[in-house]
Specification:
The protein has helices at about 5-20, 70-80, 110-115, 130-140, 155-160, and strands spanning about 30-40, 40-45, 50-55, 60, 85-90, 100-105, 105-110, 120. The protein has a single domain (about 30-150), classed as OB fold (Dihydrolipoamide Acetyltransferase, E2P) (Beta Barrel). The longest helix is centred in the N-terminal third of the chain and has 20 residues, at about 5-20. The chain is of the alpha+beta class. The strands form two sheets. The chain has a five-stranded mixed β-barrel. A two-stranded antiparallel sheet has the order 4-8. The chain is globular and about 70 Å long. A hairpin with a 2-residue loop joins strand 6 and strand 7 (about 105-110). The chain has five helices and eight strands; from the N terminus they run H-E-E-E-E-H-E-E-E-H-E-H-H.
């Protein structure tokens, strides 16, 4: 086998791999929201009657006992409680909750919380889009960003 022939075979193999990766289906869940624990945690009931706890991926809302915690919970509840949602699964967290991007009626709930100043971009999530949404809410002084020194939820939890 010549060098040129080998290079063409390698290129073809790489092209096939890239083609297959491009068509990987994202894992999703669908169900009706039956509980909103706080701004970034919901429970859905799937079609097969399984309850799945979902932690909204990439964001962190104020805790219920924190400034704007109740407002974040109410906001999430208003958007999705009792409605059918689609969850793009991103993983499982250490508490065995499904991490996901929640969509309802064409809205991305994760992004809506950021846009409305009711969530921080989670510090370990590397999303320039989420960062931009948070910065716009900060600039507009929406909700948590209206406070002089808002306390991030991860810092609030450490203090307890």
């Amino acid at each position: 086998m010549t060098k040129v022939n080998l290079l063409w075979r390698i290129k073809l193999l790489l092209l096939c791999i890239l083609f297959c990766l491009g068509f990987q289906k994202t894992a999703t869940l669908t169900g009706k929201v039956i509980k909103v624990a706080d701004g970034d945690t919901i429970t859905i009931l799937t079609e097969d009657k399984k309850q799945v706890k979902i932690r909204l991926y990439g964001i962190d809302c104020p805790e219920n006992k924190q400034d704007f915690g109740t407002k974040a919970r109410t906001f999430t509840s208003t958007i999705c409680f009792g409605k059918n949602v689609t969850v793009e699964i991103k993983g499982i967290d250490r508490y065995k909750r499904t991490l996901g991007i929640v969509k309802v009626e064409g809205k991305n709930v994760n992004e809506e919380l950021l846009k409305n100043g009711l969530a921080w971009k989670y510090k370990y999530t590397y999303s320039s889009h989420y960062l931009m949404l948070e910065q716009q809410a900060r600039k507009s002084k929406l909700n948590i960003w209206s406070l002089k020194k808002p306390i991030a939820p991860w810092d609030f939890r450490k203090r307890k």
